[in-house]
Specification:
With about 120 residues, this protein is of the alpha/beta class. The chain has one domain: OB fold (Dihydrolipoamide Acetyltransferase, E2P) (Beta Barrel), CATH 2.40.50. A five-stranded mixed β-barrel has the order 1-2-3-5-4. Strand 1 and strand 2 form a beta hairpin. The radius of gyration is 14 Å and the shape is globular. It starts with 5 loop residues before the first helix and ends with a helix.
């Protein structure tokens, strides 16, 4: 999941999780947690900018690994895992079963953009 192609893969994985089930994925992002997550769950998140920072929205993948409870929100990590499918709030969605991860520094360019924004003149 490189920054330049993040949104293309993100959209396809969200729309067609069964197509990616069992595939290995490597991604980086910041930790986001919800109160109803299990201790081993978090979202590996990125901010998507379509026009300017004021319109930023969060994209991310629900992820599971034993040490998730120990990570603070907004910590940047890079993870490698396998895509699976789970149910959250009665919705079927992809989940990353993290096999390895490490803390990283926030990238100099932490935002991602839709591919059409990147190729516009």
């Amino acid at each position: 999941m490189t920054d330049n192609f993040y949104t293309i893969y993100y959209d396809d994985i969200i729309d067609n999780p069964s197509k990616y089930k069992g595939k290995t994925i490597k991604l980086k992002g910041f930790v986001l947690k919800e109160d109803d997550f299990k201790q081993n769950q978090l979202v590996i998140s990125r901010f998507l900018i379509t026009h300017c920072i004021a319109d930023a929205s969060i994209l991310g993948f629900l992820s599971e690994f034993p040490e998730a409870y120990n990570l603070d929100e907004d910590t940047w990590i890079e993870a490698i895992g396998t895509i699976d499918i789970t149910t959250y709030n009665d919705a079927s969605l992809p989940i990353i079963k993290v096999a390895s991860w490490k803390k990283i520094k926030e990238p100099k360019k932490p935002y991602i953009y839709p591919i059409d924004i990147l190729i516009s003149p």
